[in-house]
Design goal:
Length: 467
């Protein structure tokens, strides 16, 4: 049902966009060169196809088992209307996603994008070439990603982009499902759950919409991190393979080993180790020489060169970028301060996870880890802040728990979202603020609040234990 709903929505919105001229006329040549000329049907057919597709999306998403589990498992008219209302909001958001995909096709044809680098690098790997030289160093992911991405490189770049979009939409919906299920102990009724989901779409939507517009991997990494942290009922191999994939694609998510060790999830760690060895050996499939060259080039381009670069640009909202802006011209000192503060933050989050592992605050401690990864990773730019999905969701769930009232939490949540909203839509506020780091400061406020709430410290009060 979810597959049918998403396909119907995309079909419907592409039709309506073509009818209104958003991707027709002069854009037709752009779409044709991107490999999606099959979307050019007569204009008079666009309206009925568009309405039928949008209607199919609402029907399929509203009746899916996923919607029943997520929004309201009950029966009756009230439950059905809740699910339809949520499905309608998703259809509208997916319509915006379709517009972004049309924008992505324009970018693919007119200039380079992240997705085009992925596509080019995967084609180069298939031909036994240096994937980093093929993109002039603009691709800097580990070579594992290109092995996994290779099947998409066999398609025209525009069609591959559409498939990539569809895959990311599916895992995004699964991420929402996992977050809601993980925090359901704070959401008393179906109506509260639906309001919670609307709130998460509003809070984090601005980040994943940007990811969908340019074909990045941030949604994939966020989903893998959430999968590892919320895999309570999944077999250990699922979270283990998820951790291995996240670490193989972005390295820094490997910090999730810390909470897994503290939770004594030995089977998950064993699966992660085995999967990581297999993934790291995957580039050797084209031959040992090709694989070794790929890893050598990655170390030079993706590690040495990237760590040597200055990260003082305002759009870099990591702790490393903050230190470089705070200590201009003193790069070595900034790196040393970043390393010390990062170790302290990881140590604090680890201690908190251990301290609360058997109490009601354990979920909040786990929800902090995506934010910790964002803070300590030197490559955390504005677009990577989709990673705040789980920490922001935990804050929102606490605020929606009728038995938990805290004006301090509410104030921090509102301030954080104002910072992310204003800074995200209008960059002037990022460039004229405390060390140009409003994203980072807001995230640190959220992490601090979650940590204190998990411990039941001071004005945050004693945390309610789970039943």
């Amino acid at each position: 049902m979810i597959f049918l709903g998403v396909c119907g929505v995309l079909l419907g919105w592409f039709s309506l966009l073509q009818m209104t001229g958003a991707i027709s006329g002069s854009a037709g040549e752009v779409l044709g060169s991107a490999g999606v000329a099959w979307l050019s049907w007569p204009w008079w057919a666009s309206l009925p196809v568009g309405l039928a597709g949008a209607g199919l999306g609402v029907f399929a998403l509203g009746r899916s088992a996923w919607a029943r589990e997520l929004v309201d498992p009950g029966r009756g008219d009230q439950a059905r209307w809740r699910r339809r209302a949520f499905a309608l909001v998703l259809v509208i958001l997916l319509g915006h996603v379709a517009q972004l995909e049309a924008l992505e096709w324009r970018h693919l044809a007119e200039r380079e994008t992240d997705f085009k680098y992925f596509h080019t690098a995967a084609q180069a790997w298939g031909q036994g070439e240096d994937i980093f030289a093929a993109t002039s160093g603009l691709y800097f992911y580990p070579p594992v990603f290109q092995v996994l991405f290779f099947p998409l490189s066999l398609l025209p770049v525009g069609v591959a982009s559409l498939v990539w979009l569809w895959l990311k939409l599916i895992i995004l919906l699964d991420a929402l499902r996992r977050v809601e299920k993980f925090l359901r102990c704070y959401l008393a009724t179906p109506a509260v759950r639906q309001a919670f989901l609307f709130g998460i779409l509003f809070v984090t939507g601005r980040f994943w919409l940007a990811d969908l517009a340019y074909g990045n991997t941030n949604i994939l990494i966020t989903w893998l991190v959430i999968l590892v942290l919320t895999a309570e009922d999944d077999p250990p191999w699922i979270s283990g393979v998820g951790l291995a994939l996240a670490a193989a694609l972005k390295v820094v998510p490997g910090l999730l080993i810390v909470p897994l060790v503290l939770q004594k999830r030995r089977r998950t760690l064993a699966w992660a180790g085995l999967a990581l060895v297999v993934l790291c050996a995957a580039p050797m499939f084209k031959g040992p020489a090709v694989g070794l060259q790929a890893w050598e080039s990655y170390y030079r381009v993706g590690v040495t060169d990237k760590l040597a670069e200055s990260l003082a640009q305002p759009d870099n909202q990591s702790l490393r970028g903050f230190c470089e802006r705070l200590l201009p011209g003193r790069v070595d000192t900034a790196k040393a301060v970043w390393a010390l503060l990062s170790c302290a933050l990881v140590g604090w989050a680890g201690w908190l996870t251990h301290r609360t592992r058997k109490s009601g605050g354990g979920r909040l401690a786990l929800a902090m880890w995506p934010g910790v990864i964002l803070v300590v990773s030197p490559g955390s730019w504005v677009v990577h802040y989709i990673g705040v999905m789980l920490p922001a969701a935990a804050m929102l769930a606490l605020l929606m728990d009728l038995r938990e009232r805290s004006r301090i939490l509410l104030a921090i949540f509102v301030l954080a979202n104002l910072a992310w909203t204003v800074s995200g839509w209008s960059r002037w506020s990022v460039r004229h603020s405390i060390a140009e780091s409003w994203f980072l400061i807001a995230l640190l406020m959220v992490l601090g609040a979650l940590g204190m709430k998990a411990l039941g410290v001071g004005v945050f009060g004693q945390f309610r234990r789970e039943r």
